[in-house]
Structure formats: structure tokens, C-alpha cells
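Entry type: protein chain
Record version: 2
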Amino acid sequence: MIGALRRYFVEAIGQRIFYGWAIVGVAGLGIFVSGPGQSHTFSVFVEPISQDLGISTATLAGAYGLATLTAAFLLPYMGRAIDRYGARRALIVIVAFLGMACLFFGAAANLLWLALGFALLRFLGQGSVMLSCANLVSHWFSRQRGFAMSLMALGFGVSMAVHPPLSQFLVTEFGWRQAWVVLGVMTWLFMLPPVLLILHDKPEDLGFAPDGAKTAPPELGTTAAGQVTGMTLAQALRTRNFYILAFGCFGISMLVTLLHFYQVKILTAQNIDAKTAARVFTISALTMICAMPLVGRLFDRMRTRFVFALGLTVIAMALWAVTLATTLAGAIAYALLFGVTNAFSMTVFGYIWPRYFGRKHLGSIQGTGQLIGVVGASLGPLPVGIAFDLLGDPTWTIRLLAFYPLCAALLAVLMLRAHPSVDEAAHLE
């Protein structure tokens, strides 16, 4: 039955557009569904959980960071599983467990339970769902990969616009525990049907090459793995590019997570009321949605190292802007910059690894890259949490952190170059 429906969708959609755009749509929905594992959703729950369980801000940030760090080390294994079994099969399992993790988190009764819930949500949502979706789009597109990734990442913007105010409403009306039940059920209802019926792992499975060029059609469900090239993880780890990208992506993840996790607390400490601070996410999300296609086109048409450096520079600007957001106008200015920051960060993580290392072993390379990013995310909230608890004011801590992405940008411009053995997007060198 499912097989017949899958063939029907391939034929119905493929007669109208390149099927890869349907993959982008499902992947974008997946990025939206990852919302319960993202920091912008947790931001709404920091204060209610802290008050209910009697946990300090620094302790909560420490539990969040340690759990995220622990979960991160499972991501390379998930990447290898995606290489072996395909992203579709992986997503079926991931989404099923992500919904259960939401229910588990909502029942947390102590710090240990809370930390385990953090670990599950971060591994499955922020880590595995995003890894699988980026893997899918990376296989289906090459010359249009930046634009396709940007469209996929619109799901993150929609999540930023929907999940914080929705969570705030659920917390206010029903309590933070019941809110997580609703988020878990939403995860199953939104994502499982399209994963089962629409997804296919690679264009070669349906007789296409990336971007829609025709190849010799195999039987539905078979692969043409011989047509896919790229470095192994071991080969990638021996290149200079890997460490330049790792340094930049670590910083992006660390600093964007910092802003997501503490945005409400930072702004309310600067005389912005809590409701306005939560609604800033919506402004950022709308800005991100508008900027995303433009960022994708930049990656497709300009040298990657320059676009990568530009994104890092925008992050530094957003860090300074949040410390100056003491009025509504300042908060809006910060929200606009933060929206552009998210447009860059979401596109970078999907685009950068196949761009420099190819597609053949992409799952294991992306999994390792995601590990680096999640480690950065796990550490991001800690400096500001400590600054709040010890200094009472995180302003100069945040401003000093802004020098990290500027250093990474300079390094990328001076040293990042494609390896001669990789022909992905060679027109950009």
C-alpha cells in the first residue's frame, strides 16, 4: 500500500516539477518539526522550569549544555547510519522517538530527568532531524544547492515564528508540562506521513542526477551509487579545509545558540518586557524568511569563502546589537540582524560539507560536522549564564565573544580553498 502511494506521488509530482523540490518541501517541514529540540523553544521554558523545579539559571544552563554535549557524540554514528540505510529510514525512527522525547521531557521531576530529556531532544531534534534533512537536500541538488538549502531552512524561520509564542500560550494556559505533550503529538502528525509517502534518498534512485538532469532510469527503489563521488571522512580529516570549516561552524553554533537560549532573559534585563522579548523571535523569523533565498543565491553564485565570512561577520554584529537593545527600536534592530544571522547559519550547515567533500560519504562527514556544531551549541549558553549569576550583567561577555566569528571570517577568506579532487560546485572557485 505504501509502495503504491509512493509511486503515485513520484508520478504525480514528477510530471509537473523536478521531484527534488518535493524533497525540499518535506525537508523544510522536518526543520520546522525539529522545533522542540531547538533553543528558541527552550528559551520560553527556562523561567517556568527554573521556578517549578527550584533550579538556578546557571544550573539549568549547565544541564542543558552537558546534555547537549553528551548527545553530540552520537551524531557521527547517526551519520554513518544515514550513509548505510538512507535518510528516509532514519527519519522514520528519529521522528517517532522525538515525539516520545517531548512526552518524557514534560514529565521531568528532577534535574537528572531534565538533563536526560534535554539530551534526547537535542540529539533527535536539533541534531538528527536536521542532519537527515540536510543530507537529503544535499543529494538532490548541486548547482542550486544553496537556494534549495535556503528554502529548506525556511522551516526554521517558521519554527522561530510559531514555537516560542505557541509555547508561551500553552505554558500560560495549561502549564509547561502539558505544553510538551502538545509539541510531541504535533511532531508525529506533521512529519510521519510525508516521510513515509514522499521521501526518496537520492535522485539516482528515480533516474535523475542532482538539479534534475536525466540519467539512465533504474528500477524504483534501487540506487546508482557508482555515480556519486566524494571523500571519505578519513580523507576529509586530513585536509586543511575541514578544520577551517569546523572552527567557523563551531562558533556559529555556539553564538547563535547563546542568543536563542538567553534572548528573553537578556532583553528583559535591559527593560524590555517579557512578551515583547518573546515576540522578537517572530520579527527575526520573518526577517530570516525574507533573507533566506537571497543567502542561498549568494552561495550558488559567489565564492563560498566570501559568503561564509560574511555570515560570520553578521553574527558578530548581532552580538553587539543585542547588548544595545534597551528600547523597542533597539530590540527591533537586533531582531532584524538576528534574522539575517539565522538565514546564514541555517544555510551554511547544510551547504558547506558537500561543497568541499562531495556526496559519497556525506552522512558520516555531516555527522561529524554536526557533532562539532552541537558541541558549540552545548557550550554557548554557559558564559552568559555564568555572567548573569556572578556579574549580574552579561554585556561585556557577549561583546568579547563577538571577536570569535571575526577571527573565523578572516581565516576563511585567507585559507579556505576547494580540494582538487572534489568537483562539487567547482564553478565557485
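Comment: Confidence is low (pLDDT under 50) at residues 216-226.
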